[in-house]
Specification:
globular, 16 helices, twelve-stranded mixed sheet, alpha/beta, two-stranded antiparallel sheet, Anaerobic Ribonucleotide-triphosphate Reductase Large Chain, 14 strands
Length: about 450
């Protein structure tokens, strides 16, 4: 039961503090769509996604009207397509075009799962799909792609890391007339999770049910508003408690929407991903939360400690509100999507090295960062390798989503529009790591992988 005060508080969060359901994502298994004939497989893929998800947008809009809670995106995630390519062979881009068509036909915002899991090596279909990613993302609008190159249990596939440096660059080049957005729809993971509802990294894991509903909740503005009311001399433990209490309320809202969506779509409810995912909207910034805690600017010394406390408090509050918290759950720090991060970069307090340090304690990694267009593929691979190492050693999910600014000057900005926002080009260390990347092979799993 909800009290009148709680209802009024929630209305205020929605109207003034940018509280929203960031996404309802339907995960769909395509394992039964495999076929030795790629054209037959593509038809099965289209039919299953359409039959399962054709009411997703309608139900999402109805829940928004019923409860007055904004639901920003409706999305679908599918079984990693490399698995289907391994059976059918042929040109993987056919699958991407099929996914894009069905996504347009059912009216969703994005579809994820043009993916491969290669942390311990390449199986049938993996290499073909990875090589096809630039073309696939340049020929589609709603398809998102991800590749998992490492894990705590397996180590890091350095051959895949090398490939992805070139793939990221090629994605940007093939979409340079669209502000290099191809690279913005591609994520390189370590320790990817199977139930992530957020794009561009969502895919439907093989351990999931045939169909499932996952919900992603966001609310940086709500957390910041709660902290603004606290005296500047309040102890940090009080700050942590306020964040926990706020996260509890946000998660309860996600639980409600997820449960209702599950009933109306007759699909099992999966998880609530409690991630403080910022937007370009003023006041909806994770960086501003950190500054409210006591930093002059995000990126100042103390930033990593503040972010660690924020991430932990968010998770503690969320798990008290729902037994189905999962996905990534934490605080995202994408640069282009967070006005506070953009401002901090412009004033010089936030650099790539500080962002890398922050990824050791946040969800998920180096996200939506615009880098110079003349960055070499080896440097991009080095960025991926460093971030994967942080995830591998710390047993957490990390990721890289960088956008080489092909055709832009280093003092310019790229505007992606919508939730993806805009980003100034970040200066990076361009010293070569080519010899290291060219070694290839497998970086061995760390000692903590031996937990059995």
């Amino acid at each position: 039961m909800f009290t009148n005060d709680e209802i009024l508080e929630t209305i205020n969060m929605i109207n003034k503090e940018n509280l929203d359901i960031r996404t309802i994502t339907m995960g769909i298994s395509l394992l039964d769509c495999m076929d030795a004939d790629i054209d037959k497989s593509c038809q099965k893929v289209y039919n299953k996604i359409y039959n399962k998800a054709h009411d997703l947008v309608k139900v999402g809009n109805l829940l928004q009207q019923t409860y007055g809670i904004p639901i920003i995106n409706k999305r679908v995630s599918v079984t990693p397509i490399a698995m289907l390519v391994g059976v059918s062979g042929g040109d993987p881009v056919k699958y991407a075009i099929t996914l894009d068509k069905v996504a347009h036909d059912i009216g969703i915002d994005f579809i994820g799962g043009y993916s491969a899991l290669v942390q311990k090596g390449f199986s049938a279909g993996d290499l073909e799909l990875i090589k096809s990613i630039p073309e696939a993302l340049s020929k589609t609008n709603l398809v998102c792609s991800s590749v998992n190159v490492g894990s705590t249990r397996a180590g890091i596939n350095l051959d895949a890391v090398k490939m992805m440096g070139q793939v990221v660059l090629d994605c940007a080049k093939l979409t340079k007339d669209k502000n290099c957005i191809g690279a913005g729809k591609l994520v390189v993971f370590c320790n990817a999770v199977e139930d992530n509802p957020f794009m561009a990294g969502a895919f439907h894991g093989v351990g999931e049910a045939d169909t499932v509903i996952n919900v992603g909740v966001s609310g940086p503005g709500v957390v910041r508003a709660a902290l603004k009311k606290v005296p500047k001399d309040a102890p940090i433990s009080e700050i942590a408690d306020i964040i926990k209490n706020t996260a509890f309320k946000i998660t309860r809202m996600g639980q409600l929407i997820g449960s209702e969506a599950s009933k109306r779509l007759n699909v099992p409810f999966g998880i609530v991903d409690l991630s403080l995912a910022p937007t370009p909207a003023i006041g909806d910034s994770v960086a501003h939360i950190l500054e409210e805690i006591g930093l002059e600017s995000c990126g100042a010394y103390g930033t990593t400690a503040c972010l660690a406390m924020l991430n932990d408090a968010v998770k503690k509050g969320g798990v008290m509100a729902s037994s189905r918290v999962g996905g990534l759950s934490g605080a995202f720090i994408p640069v282009s999507e967070d006005q506070g991060m953009i401002d901090a970069q412009k004033r010089g307090s936030l650099c790539m090295e500080k962002l890398e340090a922050m990824t050791a304690v946040c969800s998920v990694g180096l996200d939506m960062i615009v880098i110079p267009g003349d960055t070499t593929p080896e440097v991009i691979s080095g960025i991926i390798a460093d971030e994967a190492a942080i995830g591998m050693v710390n047993s957490k999910t990390t990721a890289v989503r960088v956008i080489p600014a092909i055709g832009f000057k280093d003092d310019e900005e790229i505007n992606f529009g919508g939730l993806l926002g805009y980003g100034p080009i970040m200066k990076i260390n361009k010293y070569s790591c080519k010899t290291f990347i060219d070694r290839g092979g497998q970086i061995p799993a760390p000692l903590q992988s031996l937990k059995n």
